[in-house]
Amino acid sequence: STRRKKIYEGHGKILYEGPEPGTLVQYFKDDASAYNNAKRAVLEGKGVLNNRISEYFMTRLNTIGVQNHFIRRLNLREQLIRELEIIPLQVVVRNAAAGSLSQRFGLPEGQPLPRSIIEFYLKDEKLGNPMVTEEHITAFNWASTQEIDDMMALSLRVNDFLNGAFGAVGISLIDFRVEFGRLWENDFSRVVLADEISPDNCRLWDTQTREKLDLDRFRRDLGDAIEGYAEIARRLGIMKEMP
Length: 243
Ligand code: C5P
Fold this sequence. Notes:
This protein is α+β, with helices and mostly antiparallel strands. About 30% of the residues lie in helices and about 35% in strands. It has a 5-stranded antiparallel beta sheet, covered by helices on one side. A hairpin with a 5-residue loop joins β2 (about 15) and β3 (about 25-30). The longest helix has 23 residues, at about 145-165. The protein is globular. About 35% of the residues are buried.
C-alpha cells in the first residue's frame, strides 16, 4: 500500500493525510485503553466494529442535519473524513448516573437523572482531562459562548437520536462522550461533530438484563468486550458480513 503521512495517533485511532485537501483518513485500531491509559489491551476486531458502528450513526446524523466530519467508509478499518479545527474539549451527555458522576455525587449506577446533564472536559491527557466550566472555556478561549451553545444543542440532538436508535433495539444509553471541530468557510466557521460514536465512548446497557455492552466490560473486567460490541452491531443490523 502507499505510504501516507501520519497526522496524529491516539489510543484508538490514527489520522492520515487524505486524498484531497481538507480530507483525512481515520484508521480504527484494536487498541483499548482506560483510566487515562493506565490499563491497556488489544481487543481483536474492535477497530472493525467501531468503524462500522460509527459510520452507521454519523451517516444517519448527517441525514437529520447534525453535520459531522464523516464522508464515507473506505474499508474495514478506515473512513474518509473532513479535516476540522478540533475544539480541545470533550462533551459528555448523561441520562443516568454512572462512572465519574456516580463517584462524585455518590449516586447508584443506573439511577435515572432528573434531566440529561451535559459536562465539558478539557482534552488534555497529561492533566487527566479535567472537568471545566463555561467560565474556563471562554476565559482561556477554547471556544466562544456561541460555540458552547452550539455544542450543547448538537449534543442534545445526538442524545435524542441515539436514545431512539438504541432504545428501539433494547439498549439503554446511559451516557456518551463526543468531540467537535470547526469547519471553516472563508472567514466563517461552524461547529461540526467529530471523532466517533462507538461503544468506546458510550455506556450501553441491555435494557432488560442491565448487562453492560460497552468498554466498561474491559475497564472493569466484566468479560469479553468484543462480544458486547458485536451484540450492539448485530442488534443495529450492521453485522451481516462481519467476521
Ligand atoms: O468516566 P465518565 O463517567 O466521566 O465517562 C462518561 C462517558 O464518557 C462514558 O460513556 C465514557 O465511556 C466516556 N468517556 C470517553 N472518553 C474519556 C472519558 C469518558 O469516551 N476520556
